[in-house]
Amino acid sequence: MADTTDHVDVEAGRPRAAARAKRPPIWTQIPPRIWKGCIGLVGVACLATLITVLASITDLGPSDQILVKDPAGHWVRQGPFQGVIFTTYPKEVRQGTLLQPHQYAVVKNQLSGKPRDIDGPQLLFLGPYDKLLKVSQKVVLQDNEYAIVKHSLTGVIRHEEGPTLFHPGVFDTVLRTRSKIVLQKDEYIRMVDGVTGAERVVHGPVNFVPIPLETSINGTKQDLFLNIDLSALLLNRNTGEQRLVVEKGAFAPGPYEEILEVRPLIYVLPHEAVVVRNERGQLTVHAGTDAKDGLGVSFFLPPYSEIFTMMWSDYSSLPADSSSRVLVEKIDVRARAIYYQYEVRTRDNVKMTLEGTIFWQVKNVSKLVLSTADPEGDVWQHARSVLIEAVSNATLSDFMSGFNAIVMDAFRRQAQDGFYLDRGVELQSMEVTRFDCADPATSSILQEIIQETTNRINRLTAQQSENDVKAAALTADILLERQRTELITIKAENERLQAQMAGEATGMQLMKGAATFIGGLNESLPSIDSRVELYKLHEELQSRNKDTYNLASGSAHLFLTPSDLNLRLDTRTTKNGTLEL
Q: pLDDT tens digits for 303-348?
């Protein structure tokens, strides 16, 4: 009824307004209790709104980000920001991640599950559904380094070469960092692919990064320097063939080639011979005398060949019970000496020990190789048997008196029996340097005999020496006397010649004096006889005056008879009548 009245009043216009004006306000009709409750509710709502507004005020710095987890879709807002973000959904304020130039981040989208990498330098803000998995350091690769990187999904391995600041991918794992392989001018390295097994050889000078999964078999190797004295024997692992490299210079094998050995040049001197056996077992003799100049030969051992070696007995010193054995690669074709010590018995059963030397020589190397493996042992044993036979046919006294003849007879017989000729050797001589009795008693008697013989020989030698000394002294005396006779003869001849020369000189002087004296009297005494007589008188007076002078100047006493004096006084009368002697 009330509603109808109001409606009517409204439709009536003024009557309704008048009626409403007369009615009191509705809130005056509300009880105070209700009024207080409404005011309290409004206050609480205002307070809640105020609290919500205050809580929604957001102040974001430059490195801040807010994430709103709205069920309809998460969303983010980056700073700097200052304002109200009104939402009733959970919020999260998070810091941005500062990435340095040497860093990178791996972020995962939680809706798609797909990770991605973000490179620095930058300030990283995550997306609404992003999750920061890690922040990693980039790999610094120097100029001489490389990194081995593995893809986690595919398993593929690759190499990253420096110099660079390497940023691995999302699924990349840096296994390790290694130095590049540096090869010098004379170096090489063999690389093998770990997947295909393919092989390659890298030669220097170079620095390189190997192919992924490629490894080195033996590391860096030095080139082999070949000259006139060295060669290299190679094996090709593909074909199994061997070849010999003799070219001079630095050499490195190729792929699938292996250096089996370095073979030196084999020198064969003029007095040597080397036997080589090939893969077919055929023997080839390289003799030093094959060279035209006579200075020896040299050669490299061919592939599949080897030097034929033998084991020879060594009798270079007196053996005991057995000889030593030596390895012989080069056969010496010069004369060789071996020493022996044999025990033999004479025909009268005297046991003796003989020591001596045997000289022998290799004459035909081919025969020697084909007929015997120990020529020195054969010579020693055969000479022993022949010498035992020869001594057994002689008694002790015969042997002592003529052991040289016995040995030489044995030597001649064995040199002609063909044993040595069949082995390509020649027996040159066999000498006995010492013999002794094996029995001590017999040896003592033999020593006495030898001592007595030696004493006798020494006495004969001493007597002979004394006779030789006397004969030499006598010969020297005879020679001295002959030389004295020659001296006397020569001195007499010299004196005679001197007297002759002096007489001739004096005669010439006298003759000249006589000629002058006689010639000067030509005018006074024309008669030559008178002049000669006068000269004789003059000389006689001169001689007497000289004799008188000699007697007067000496202390000798001279006794003369009147007849010896032959004194004559000549007197004559001078013009004045006096006598004058």
A: 999 999 999 998 887 755 556 889 999 999 999 999 888 888 888 8
Tokens 């006294």, residue?
397
| Beta pairing class for 97-99 and 75-78 | unpaired
Joined tokens for residue 455: 């004493």
Distance separating alpha carbons of residues 240 and 409, to the nearest angstrom: 61
Element (H, E) at 158: strand 157-161
Q: Are 247 and 272 in contact (CB under 8 A)?
A: no
Are 433 and 363 spatial neighbours (Cβ–Cβ below 8 Å)? Answer: no
Whole-angstrom Cα distance, residue 305 to residue 279? 6
Residue 98: name the closest of 128, 140, 61 by CA: 61
Residue type, 462: A
Q: Number of helices (H) and strands (E), helices first, in the chain? A: 10, 38
Strand partners, 60: 81
**Residue 2 DSSP SS3:** helix
Residue 552 CA to residue 541 CA, distance in Å, equals 16
Preceding omega of 121 cis (within 30 degrees of 0): yes
Q: What angle do CA 375, 379, 384 make, to 5 degrees?
A: 150
Q: What is the pLDDT of residues 367-402, one digit of tens each?
A: 999 999 999 999 998 988 888 888 888 887 788 778
How many other CB atoms are found less than 10 A from the CB of residue 347?
A: 13
Question: Residues with Cβ < 8 Å from 68, sequence gap 6 or more?
Answer: 74, 75, 76, 77, 85, 87, 89, 90, 91
Report yes or no on whether pTM surpasses 0.85: no
Phi first, then psi: what are they for 362, rounded to 5°?
-80, 125
The helix/strand/coil state of 225 is strand
- CA dihedral sign, ordered 315, 318, 319, 324: negative
Contact indicator for 268, 233 with CB cutoff of 8 Å: no
